[in-house]
User: What shape does this take?
Amino acid sequence: MTTDSLRTTAVVQPRDRKGVRRAPKAPWGSPGLYLIAIVLVTICITPVLYIIIGGFRTNAQITADPSGFPDPWRFTNYSDVLAGSEFWTALLNSTIVAVGTTAGAVLLGVMAAYVLARYEFTGKPVMYALFAAGLMFPVTVAITPLYLLIRNLGLVNSLAGIIVPQIAFALPGTIVILVPFLKAIPKELEEAASIDGASRLGFFWRMVIPLSLPGVITVGILAFVGSWNGYMLPLFILNDPGLFTLPLGVQNFSSQYSVDTARVLAYTSLSMLPALIFFSLFERRIVGGLTGAVKG
Amino acid sequence: MTGTQVMAETVPESDRCTGAGVSPAPVRRARADWRKRGEIVLLSGPALLMFVGFVILPVAMAAFYGFFKWNGFGWPTQFVGLDNYVHMWQDHTFRDAVVHNFAIVVLSLLLQGPIAILFALLLNQKFRGRSLIRVLIFVPYVISEVIVGTGWSLMAQDAGAVNSLLEKLGLGFLKQSWIADPKLALWTLMIIITWKYIGFAVILMLAGMQSIPEELFEAAAIDGAGFWKIQWNITVPLLGPTIRIWAFLSIIGALQLFDLVNIIWGQYISATAGTSTMATYMYQNGHLAGSYGFGNAVAVMLFLITLVVALIYQRFVLQRDTDGALTGDSGKARR
Assistant: This one.
């Protein structure tokens, strides 16, 4: 399953890019097509817009007409949230956790994927199967014992207690995506490097990493987004609101200010902003990577 | 992927090239062998340690803890055998949760599959604005479950935007207690799940469709087949592998569902609303209750159910596409 689908992705990605480049020349579709597309997009986007626009209303407006537009537009909810420290603390914590997870998962993932892609040894099929099987078991299955392990290591209520398990759970996806990328590097390059006196490890750092950069970026983004949106692990590990990441921050905020709906909406839309900006920047890679990663 | 097989030959060979004549070949070969082993350990060791330590070991420990009555402190001493498992299956709230999980599995496949294929078929044509549409329908997938849950629970509450909108549209008779009504809550959850994950399914289907050779469509069009006929007879059958993999992911995801339920229904009303899942049951009766022996037994059950479903699916459905991800190694992929 894994390699099969990944190979398709490897083929699809460049074609996809070509398709986008060709886009301006594409003809207009039929009106019916646009009608259906508009309905689909409306369904997908309206709840998101509701959260964002709702943040510009007052509680009185929301109570009087839950599905109305702001009248007048009020910016105090957003400015209040931005003036408080809760949002910024959660944003900082989320950033630290996501950056740490990404760095760890990519570094360890590239190293292990390199071994699986370019070395021949007895335990290789087992090692690959181990990581591939890990894809099927997200954190939910392991969370209860994992919490105990983290607690025994004294990492409860610390960001490290989130980062370390997240790296471990990001590894299967990272490795399974990277192996085909690393296999694709021509062996002639390695021979040439070896003749020029480069050690295998030197080859790894100087040639493999730069050449597999597209794959490395894809897995990096996937690890980042997964960490950024992660909920269950922080829920179990973190109790101190000062360490909450954004998802926990949203949950905490919405129970703390449950009567202040407008402010909850403002906080929620602010916390989705980083993810949306990140997505719009890396949209093609996220879509391409996910179709590969999750297909595995 | 023949690269690896060749690589194994390449290294000693190139080694021999550079070091010819320095020492007898067997010695050099042995030394290179040790060096290779060292590199393998150095490069893959850290990842293996992390993976085994934080993924495999916890699951194995859960199997052990599950036999004890234990509050999570100190070393478990009160061995109770299979009591935790018996107790679990005797508890109707757990059985309900399992039923909810499987209902969510089936409904996810039935709701999302056809909708996703239909929309992917429409979006697979080349027309202006297609890439923008693809980005927009993917937005719900990118924002976190917590945000989705928080937003939807505000919209779907009794005095929320959904009921208000229905009234404005003159559909006031459709107003419902979307979240609290046990007859409806599961369907509300399904609507939210569909909304959240449909973009992903569409993108996946689109990727699958793009790997179908265009010549097939051209040939069918020349033979006079219409749009829908082409889709039904060519695209959908050739999309088989993609659909089967998507269904697999959807099933696994539905069995592990936690975030959305926990955020919208909280730990306490999910059981009465009829949306509890094995994972929310585990969180409530294990972690929150401080019964770690029992909680770990539930974790083991969740693992076993997922594993059995995954193996059955691999055996009977995915088998045509692959040698099996659990057993196959990377080099064995067909094609």
User: Anything to note?
Assistant: Chain A has one domain: 85-293. Chain A has 14 helices and no strands. The longest helix of chain A spans residues 86-118.
